[in-house]
Amino acid sequence: MTNRERFLDIYKTNIKREGADQLLEWLISDRSDFFTAPASSKFHGAYEGGLLEHSLNVYDCLRDNAPRLARKYNFRFSDESMAIAALLHDVCKVNFYKVEMRNVKRNGVWEPVPYYTIDDNLPYGHGEKSVYIISGYMKLTRDEAFAIRFHMGFSATDDPGTVGKALEMFPLAYALCCADMEASYYLEGSIKG
């Protein structure tokens, strides 16, 4: 099964909310590069399809960690909320990167190579932009909205007190933040087990 097929299967199986079909329609349309976009310009997933792979990795990490969080802290998340939060947390990166060329010297010869740059046509932050985009199609629960908004945790430029309060108040925000970091740094980054 390809990453695209897996994403579509998880999405269609778990997300049944009103408006979810229209959001998926946009994601698969030619108005969106969700399935081919990178996850970043130079860090984790900085390659074609990196955003899709990252979204699936975050989903897997969240699903793997959910039983432990349920046992230890009595945090319980629905399959739908986990799918929404993990699969869509970085929807703000749709149509966000563009490919440019730069010269790199290889074996003493300069040659053009492609690289990703940022082309932000909706400068609305990171997590809040994802919440904004998703909310144009379907209603999020408060837990889902805060999870997506604060999935970057303390690595974002937000006030640490605000981040800490959000992670404390909304267990899905804490769980998604941990899953995002695990996927970014351990599955996709330079720290591999």
Task: Give a brief outline of the structure.
With about 190 residues, this protein is mostly helical. The chain has helices spanning about 5-15, 20-30, 50-75, 80-90, 125-135, 140-150, 160-170, 170-185; strands at about 95-105, 110-120. Helix 3 (about 50-75) packs antiparallel against helix 4, helix 4 packs parallel to helix 6 and helix 4 crosses helix 8 (about 170-185).
Description of the molecule:
This protein has 193 residues and is mainly alpha-helical. The chain has one domain. It contains eight helices and two strands. The chain has a two-stranded antiparallel sheet. α3 packs across α8 (171-187). It is globular.
Topology readout:
Blueprint: H1 3-14, H2 20-28, H3 50-73, H4 79-88, E1 97-106, E2 109-118, H5 127-135, H6 142-149, H7 160-169, H8 171-187
Antiparallel strand pairs: 1-2
Strand order of the largest sheet: 1-2
Q: Uncertain regions: pLDDT < 50 for 5+ in a row? A: none
Distance between the termini: 24 Å
Largest sheet: 2 strands, antiparallel
Features:
193 residues; mainly alpha; two-stranded antiparallel sheet; 2 strands; globular
